[in-house]
Amino acid sequence: MSLLLFFAGMALLIAGSNWLVDGAASLARRFNISDLVIGLTIVAFGTSSPELIVNLFASFNGNTDIAIGNVVGSNIFNTLVILGLTAIVTPIAVKSTTVWKEIPFSILAVIVMAFMANDMMIDGKFKDIISRIDGFILLGFFSIFMAYTFALAKSSGPLKEVTAMEMGVFKAIVLVITGLAGLFFGGRFLVDGAVDIARYLGISEAVIGLTVVAAGTSMPELATSIVAAFKKKSDIAIGNVVGSNIFNIFFVLGISASIRPIPLASENSSNFDMVFLIIMSLIMFLFVFSGKDKKINRLEGAFFFLAFIAYTLVLILDTDKSIPFR
Q1: Residue 67's closest CA among 265, 240, 221?
Q2: Class of the domain covering 2-317
Q3: φ, ψ for residue 263 (rounded to 5)?
């Protein structure tokens, strides 16, 4: 039943986010809102809604390891699996703005999160917690990123990848309501199922959050990037991954902590996972300069995918929490 609940929740999350985006984009088009605004708000927020809903349910239920694990795990999954598989399908060309601005911004996001999650180490406090103040600071960073994104998009012209379905107002409203309901129940089912599975298997909620939950909530990004790769639009693929990583930390974690502070168990502060994510992000930055052109090639994509397999095995085998930094 827990497995059924988990997979039903995952399916509802993915379907709900799609319904919400389609309905909201159609309504926005009806009110003559530009494709630029639709793409940078409705579509972007819609693809990150699974992570947000799961985090809200996890934090309200007290499953904070799943909440922080979902954000860190989703970013690791995005970088290693989505980027890795996309590069294996076709080498990924990287724009100069992505190299010098967006990738460094995504690395900064992880570093900021790591500092905020280590009150005991940095301030000598008795508890590690991502507080409401931390959440507001993350949202401040997010507003800066959105301002940059709007400025960049305006100078780049219309977003060709943004489409809004033409439909009646009533159908669009029904889709929005249905999408919100799918997100609500999907998030609840997925979190409840994940907690039960973790207890049954005798593994920590952190491991479930970092692996299965993270992979489940990253399915929209995986589908988008693989389709973009087959269509030879690799700039969309890497933009999707890097943008999602920034969204997850500054927006998803920021909103979650602003609504309810997220305490972290001292022995599960996820420092190992955040350090690993920082290292992989730096390697992604270096890979761009490894060849003649700014590309991530198939061999580098295979490295990322194998690194994810090795990381997952470490998580599963690390039952005694003996890994440094963890």
Answers
A1: 265
A2: mainly alpha
A3: -75, 150
